[in-house]
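Archive maintenance. Older records in this collection stored only the sequence; we are now back-filling the structure field for every entry so that each record is complete. The fields below show one back-filled record exactly as it appears after the update. Entries are processed alphabetically, and Transcriptional regulator, contains XRE-family HTH domain is next in the queue.

ARCHIVE ENTRY
Title: Transcriptional regulator, contains XRE-family HTH domain
Organism field: Micromonospora echinospora
Length field: 138
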Amino acid sequence: MGSAEVSPQMAFARFVRRAIDDARQERGWTVTDLATHTGVGRSTIFRWLAGDWQDYPELAKVRGFCAALDVPVTAAFRALGLPDGAPAARRRVDDAPVEADVRVILDRLADPTVPTDEKQQIRDLLRYLAHRPARRAG
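Back-filled structure field:
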């Protein structure tokens, strides 16, 4: 017996559920807070959670949702079964390829199987590194 395929609705619902759970645990946000910070309406968030959609979610809303939660938008696009969220002609200039180790970190942060506390440790370390004074060689 093979494994059943997961629909984009189910995969995206799992992605949204994990993001909501992380926002609740890390920031104390309710769904109402999430709607306020992301610009995505409560009813839309609940539809996403229920997998209650036929047409794909508006990519601008998905991007806003991910940006407000510091979640890589590529994780949402992967859950939706989209290669990168935009046709090649519409790709943004700032979507330049990243180094392999940075890609691994982004994938880990987007992976719903990685525990929340591990994701928080990664984020804390990245914030520390981003804000420490630059050291000069020599």
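Update note: The helical segments are 8-27, 31-38, 42-50, 59-69, 73-80, 100-110, 116-131. The first helix runs from residue 8 to 27.
Entry marked complete.
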